[in-house]
Design brief:
Length: 289
């Protein structure tokens, strides 16, 4: 049986289907993930693609077949690069995505691996952090855009849409970057909380700027940093400064109909499970408005 997804077929999700990011639940195996999804009452998941150096699965190379047989619906795969350091905004600026020229060749190789894993999972979407995007007048911008263009070409050759996470730049800069790249399979994975954690603008306004290219959504909430150059604070959905109700309305207004996938990156496993359950309940209220 071919593992190549039929990207021409409709995505098998009802509009604004609710789900969760697998890494938020700190799971190590497909049965563990399935058990938590059952507890949460959802069957939609964005799945870590399982780089053995970053977010491994007990199933190893058998992850795709195990995940496809598990009965849950996957929105796409997520790639994190080995060596990314989120200790401070400054460390991730140096180590994130394709930002460091020294790591670009090996990360393009890792991207190729992740694209193959995405196809093996039967998926056509892969999400990642591109790295901090240089401003238009930055002398390093051209080289990074060349690398992102190559990444887009690699993805296109596999029939995969590559979605860059928001937050490490303003929406206007990301919009300009996508327009400069002119790659039809380079899109946006919108995370409103990241824009607050990095203090990079208003996520509601950003939806209006990026709307046509929003391919997928991570739902988490946050408060802006109190000290310039420091991290903001991630908090449970509805307790931060995103204004989740307004954000969901803005997505609807922009014509977004894809899944809403809850992400939680703070706390132990049980605490995350509790906060994700709270987030899903809160989103159901928002969608009912």
């Amino acid at each position: 049986m071919s593992t190549t997804p039929d990207v021409s077929s409709p995505r098998p999700f009802e509009p604004l289907a609710l789900g969760v990011c697998s890494w938020s639940l700190q799971v190590k195996s497909v049965p563990e993930l399935k058990g938590f999804l059952d507890r949460l009452g959802v069957d939609v998941v964005q799945i870590a693609c399982g780089d053995p150096h970053h977010a491994s699965w007990d199933e190893g190379d058998d992850l795709p077949s195990a995940a496809r047989a598990a009965g849950f619906r996957m929105t796409g795969a997520m790639l994190g690069f080995p060596g990314e350091d989120y200790t401070t905004p400054q460390t991730i600026q140096k180590t994130g995505g394709f930002g460091d020229p020294a790591t670009r060749p090996e990360r393009l190789e890792r991207l190729q691996w992740a694209l193959d894993r995405t196809v093996a999972l039967g998926l056509s979407d892969l999400m990642l952090h591109a790295g901090f995007l240089p401003e238009v007048d930055d002398p390093g911008r051209s080289d990074l855009l060349d690398v992102l263009g190559r990444a887009g070409d690699l993805a296109a050759a596999k029939g995969v849409t590559l979605a860059f996470e928001t937050g490490q730049e303003t929406a206007a800069l990301l919009r300009r970057t996508l327009d400069d790249l002119k790659s039809p399979n380079l899109k946006v994975n919108f995370d409103p909380a990241n824009m607050l954690l990095y203090d990079m603008g208003d996520p509601i306004e950003a939806v209006k700027i990026l709307g046509p290219d929003i391919r997928s959504v991570h739902l988490k909430d946050a408060r802006r940093p109190k000290v310039k150059g420091a991290w903001g604070e991630e908090v449970p959905l509805g307790e931060g400064e995103v204004d989740i109700r307004a954000f969901v309305k803005a997505l609807k207004g922009a014509g977004y109909q894809g899944p809403l996938v809850v992400e939680r990156e703070v706390g132990d496993q049980e605490g995350r499970l509790r906060d994700v359950a709270h987030g899903l309940a809160f989103l159901r209220e928002c969608l009912a408005d």
